[in-house]
Amino acid sequence: MKVNHIQHHDRGFTLVELLVVIVIIAALAGLTAPKLISMRKKGDQVVAMNNGRSMVLSMNDFSTEYGTLPDRETAKQVTDLTGSKLNLNGDSANDYFRQLIASGMLKSEDPFYSKTPYSTKKPDNNMTGSKALEAGEVGFGYIMNGNAAISTDDPNRVIAATPLLNATTKGQFDPGPLDGKAALVYLDSSVKLMQIREDNKKVAIPGSKTLLDAGEGTLWGPDIKPVLKAPLKKGAKK
Prior knowledge:
By secondary structure, the chain is an alpha+beta fold.
């Protein structure tokens, strides 16, 4: 009796078939990646806006308690009244914001965070000694009137902003983190997303010029000299 032996061979992918699969996967990734990036940046916008609202609410509480927003004068008042051991004597946004923690107006570091290239360390809420608002944990810049606090008599003024371009004080913004937008924190407890201009990386303010322009016809008027205090980059010394 003759028996036919049929051999079954498992045929693997040929090189051409593998290349076709790779091309299809790459095409699908190319289609979905921009949407995923956009969704992530929208999420970062929401985080910045929510944190900004929490921050300015605590600032208004601070102003009620101390008669003004954080500045060099209130640093001593906070230390004297609370006995806090936190360092409040620097001139960065971290130092001024730290007064809100030392005074008890905030019990979390989270409201000072937003997604930026310089705030690469999410707040760990370790607020003891030198760990409170370390370099890299703050994404917002703080706006002052020279070395004094901005007056709270006009709720339409901006008190903080993010993301600053290279964490500098020139009023320029980085269009990358928040999808081309800057988040501006107003004294009336609102946070507005403003388009960053492509030509100079600044933002135009309705009824004014750019953010730090002072004088008649601006957000600040003739009596205020807006100065931006930048946050400390991760690794920077206080």
